[in-house]
Amino acid sequence: MARVFNFNPGPAAMPEPVLQRAKSELLEMSGLGISVMNISHRSGEFQNIIDSAEAGIRDLLSVPQEYAVLFLQGSASLQFAMIPMNLRRPGKSADYVESGRFSQKALKEAQTTGKANVVWSGKEEDYTRIPEPAELRLDPDAEYLHICSNETVGGIRWNRFPEIAAPLIADMSSEILSRVIDVTRFGLIYAGAQKNLGPSGIALVIIRQDLVEREHAGIPIFLRYSTHIRERSLYNTPNTWAIYMLKLTCEWLQSRGGLKEMQRINEEKAALLYQTIDSSGFWRSPVDKNSRSIMNVVWRLPSVSLEERFLEEAKEAGMVGLKGHRSVGGIRASIYNAVTLEAVKTLVSFMKEFERKNG
Length: 359
Ligand code: PMP
Description:
Elements: E1 5-6, H1 16-25, H2 44-61, E2 67-72, H3 75-87, E3 93-98, H4 101-111, E4 115-121, E5 145-148, E6 150-151, E7 156-157, E8 168-171, E9 188-192, E10 203-208, H5 225-230, H6 240-255, H7 258-278, E11 296-299, H8 304-316, E12 319-320, E13 331-334, H9 341-358
Parallel strand pairs: 1-12, 3-4, 3-5, 5-8, 8-9
Antiparallel strand pairs: 2-10, 6-7, 9-10, 11-13
Helix pairs in contact: 1-6, 2-6, 3-4, 7-9
The structure holds 4'-deoxy-4'-aminopyridoxal-5'-phosphate.
């Protein structure tokens, strides 16, 4: 079967050159004679790979030295738990913006181990927008403010980040490396890998190292950031394959001109889709215009049965992964870095033809 255009939300499309390179090195990596999956994580060869992965992230995001770059298991969901355990001292509270499915999960996890304030919630508006900074009811004593910079299900994202005194913490799982950001605005950034970084199974964590001073003896050793900083992500046997794939993904991004160029392409892809959605009453975007994501574009058709037909016919035309999240329905095109302009143009032509036939 021919390869199809992949609009899955995650695990998601990976750059074809990265897959080709991995394929060519699967049995024998040059200089090793065996697969990268078959070498010790303590070997010099693997150390080179993890060092290159870290260097790639530091280069692409201009991560300053006072931040540690970690590759941890447990994916983004474990970060929901580790962040409050490590960065909210006993008896203190933390602030959370509830803007959709994933920030809500982060909030619930934080509530299991201490006090977490909801400083703004989009629940009443079905999570269709990001708040204005002035709407946030921040607690001056909160240890940090947590946001999800791009809500994968709702298709909304923070265009501008709030300026606050407490450390800002962001779940960037579904948009990391898709646009230029200023890392120094954040205390901690984290992202599950399976959208823009590589295969599932690891999380990237970028943490300002002074925040580690907040940790206390009650935290299990494995769940302390200080453990992984000290051991440079090799405290336990890491997911060596995913780290290798992440390294290749960084190299691919660097060869394409880095984040500035990637952002330009991503904005172009998203604009094509939003222009099509806005062009007629057949399509409807449920999302506030200022909050629109450039990674997860969601929209509705006039009826659920038309949406089902759209999905079926798109699949027949070689486009998969377009079904909206099960909690909200509708259509969602996840157009991460590896989804090409050609894929989006093909989808847009298909939409125009579908509207002509069914509008
Ligand atoms: N945060 C965001 C924004 C996500 O999109 C996801 C997964 N889609 C998660 C967190 C959770 O990631 P995981 O299931 O890999 O832990």
